[in-house]
Automatic annotation (TrEMBL):
Protein name per Swiss-Prot or TrEMBL: Adenine deaminase
GO biological process, one term: adenine catabolic process
Cofactor dependency: Zn(2+)
Species name: Paucibacter sediminis
Site (Important for catalytic activity): residue numbering on this chain: H232
Binding site for Zn(2+): H28, H30, H208, D289
InterPro entries the record matches: A_deaminase_dom, ADE, Ado/ade_deaminase, Metal_Hydrolase
UniProt-listed Pfam families: A_deaminase
EC number(s) given by UniProt: 3.5.4.2
Cellular component annotations (GO), alphabetically ordered: cytosol
Coiled coil: none
Record bears the keyword Acetylation: no
Metal-binding in keyword set: yes
Catalytic activity: adenine + H2O + H(+) = hypoxanthine + NH4(+)
Length: 355
């Protein structure tokens, strides 16, 4: 199997096109965060709702965030236009078409049922709409798409437990559970029982940790929740013992660079710790998080990182995409197939550069 050093000599000028065309997986995308302002307005009109913004441009102009909470307030307001099964389908289908154009061959998609059930939308309505889009993506786009149900951590664990039970009639339609929303003040251990229940049900486990929260939250996501991936995890670098543990276990970190800039986790992309995460031997990969709010989809994230961070070279590019497959919850045979296509794309870029 090739490794990153094989591809370090690909010229930087060849990387944008290579990154754009290469196959990749996206493992950290909140489907409600893919709702573009145009679609928010269209759905509001279709559902007879009025919005507190005069136009698409006025809504987009409000996307200036100072931290995670300032984003979440507007993100939950945007999601309030989703009422019918068709609305959930339209949102997910728009993302999946966009992802396929970015070379995404596999997506593991977060959804926040409590954002909708709290407004009276039945669980079946939202899951069936999302499921229909995932099935169509497989059939028409050749993109495999699966769902991960996220609990809102600013709400209680009892509410998370009730949400999981309410979703069980659709158990076959999601592969795992996650933990998102306001991180500070809501440590992973608050959700110990619901994650134990999900584990007993055979669900995969992931959690946001170390986005705004301290390394201690990453430790408890690992030790108490027993997660298989950390979403974000960029603050892990503050704790050398944690870095050693993450590296030894090849614990994936689903990093979201443009999100981190828009939510002021780092001042600029040039200051992002993505190169340091990779050079520490961590299984980091790039994702879009909430692309409609943060100014870019997966390829935009990749391209802007490589533009802003001169430390990144072709070896890092291969490693990031290879990590996206390694970290996915798919059968080894499928991973091998995608990995082979990735290796071939990089090999041919290397040959083109040499000739
Ligand atoms: N970046 C993020 N962090 C926590 N919760 C979220 N929900 C949507 N995007 C999120
Ligand atoms: Zn996220």
């Amino acid at each position: 199997m090739p490794g990153p050093s094989d591809f370090a000599s690909i010229p930087r000028s060849a990387l944008p096109a290579l990154l754009r065309a290469a196959p990749k997986a996206e493992l950290h995308i909140h489907i409600e965060g893919s709702l573009e302002p145009e679609l928010i307005f269209r759905l509001a009109q279709r559902n007879g709702l009025s919005l507190p913004y005069a136009s698409v441009d006025a809504l987009r102009a409000a996307y200036a965030f100072s931290d995670l909470q300032s984003f979440l307030d507007i993100y939950y307001a945007g999601a309030s236009v989703l009422l019918q099964e068709q609305d959930f389908f339209d949102m997910a289908w728009a993302y999946l078409e966009r992802a396929a154009a970015d070379g995404v061959v596999h997506a593991e998609i977060f959804f926040d049922p409590q954002t909708h059930t709290a407004r009276g939308v039945p669980m079946g309505t939202l899951i069936q709409g999302l499921r229909r889009a995932c099935r169509r993506a497989e059939a028409e786009l050749g993109l495999s798409a699966v769902l991960i149900l996220c609990f809102l951590r600013h709400l209680s664990e009892d509410e998370a437990l009730a949400t999981l039970e309410a979703a069980l009639p659709w158990r076959a339609d999601f592969i795992g559970v996650g933990l998102d929303s306001s991180e500070l003040g809501h440590p992973p251990e608050k959700f110990a029982r619901v994650f134990a229940r999900a584990r007993a049900l055979g669900l995969h486990l992931v959690a946001h940790a170390g986005e705004e929260g301290p390394p201690a939250y990453v430790w408890s996501a690992l030790d108490v929740l027993k997660v298989q991936r950390i979403d974000h995890g960029v603050r892990s670098l503050e704790d050398a013992a944690l870095v050693a543990r993450l590296a030894a276990e090849r614990m994936p970190l689903t990093v979201c660079p443009l999100s981190n800039i828009k939510l002021c986790v780092f001042k600029s992309l040039a200051e992002h710790n993505l190169p340091a995460l990779l050079d520490a031997g961590l299984c980091a990969l790039v994702n879009s998080d909430d692309p409609a709010y943060f100014g870019g989809y997966l390829n935009d994230n990749l391209e802007q990182c490589f533009e802003a961070l001169p430390a990144l070279h072709g070896g890092h590019a291969w490693q990031l995409l290879s990590n996206s497959f390694e970290a996915s919850f798919v059968a080894p045979e499928r991973k091998r197939r995608w990995q082979a296509a990735l290796d071939a794309a990089f090999q041919s870029a290397l040959s083109a550069a040499a000739s």
